[in-house]
Design a protein that fits this description.
With 245 residues, the protein is an alpha/beta fold. It has an eight-stranded parallel β-barrel, surrounded by six helices. β4, α5 and β5 form a beta-alpha-beta unit. The radius of gyration is 17 Å and the shape is globular. The two termini are 24 Å apart.
């Protein structure tokens, strides 16, 4: 079930975008993504562009979004040898097309990304700890002997040591990330699902309010908004739900 404009307590014009809420444009084409941005209007100010859209004009769209005054999260999850990641980060940040950039949380990879960013300090490097679709059985199947929580903790500490600005963790680990990283660490939580939506493929999910209360600085919420009959109404409902947190 998705909310409608009638479910809102206040007139739509009183709802303003909350920069803590990030909407992923995980859509097949740039035309689809542009249509979604148009439908959301000024209810959303921060967008995530992932690998699907990268192949169909994602970088050009990122530049256009920045020109329109939006913030952009490039969810590339860079992972390669240090030299390659350093050069890729330098090339990406030189475009001026992003505010957040994700890198897998391995010490060599993160350190290389931080070097590649160089003077582009407006771009925040985020270490991806453990994907929110993975549970304990998945981590064990990959070959890790640690618990999910133990692996996330290790990667939070490695991200901080490498000079990253923040981490990507599930809402379940947001409090731990905040405790370890302190008030300045960016704690970005995918796997956010309002109480009125399905969890889909998120193994470690939480509501927007709970994620922020636990220590998240930013929320990534996709399908509850983009798959809703009225995406703007869904976005505004979430903004209202987190306004007091």
């Amino acid at each position: 079930m998705s909310p409608t404009s009638a479910a809102l307590d206040l007139p739509p014009e009183t709802v303003r975008a909350d920069p803590r809420l990030i909407v992923p444009l995980d859509l097949p084409t740039r035309a689809d993504a542009e249509e979604m941005v148009e439908r959301l209007g000024d209810s959303i100010s921060f967008y995530k562009i992932g690998l699907q859209l990268l192949a169909t004009g994602g970088m050009d769209m990122a530049k256009d979004l920045k020109r329109r005054g939006r913030q952009v999260f490039l969810d590339w999850k860079l992972h390669d040898i240090g030299a390659t990641v350093e050069k890729a980060t330098a090339a990406i940040t030189a475009t001026g097309a992003c505010d957040f950039l994700t890198v897998h949380a391995e010490p060599q990879v993160l350190a290389a990304a931080v070097r590649g960013r160089a003077g582009a300090l407006g771009v925040k490097i985020l270490g991806v700890t453990v994907l929110t679709s993975l549970d304990q059985d998945d981590v064990r199947a990959i070959g890790y002997g640690q618990t999910v929580v133990g692996l996330v903790e290790q990667r939070i500490r490695q991200s901080i040591d490498a000079g990253a600005d923040g981490v990507i963790v599930s809402p379940n680990e947001a409090a731990m990330a905040r405790r370890i990283g302190g008030p300045k660490l960016l704690v970005v939580t995918p796997g956010v699902r309002p109480s009125w939506s399905r969890t889909d493929d998120q193994a470690r999910a939480a509501t927007p309010e709970d994620a922020l209360a636990a220590g998240a600085s930013h929320l990534v919420c996709g399908r509850p908004i983009t798959a809703a009959n009225d995406p703007r109404a869904a976005a505004e409902t979430i903004v209202r739900e987190i306004s007091g947190v």
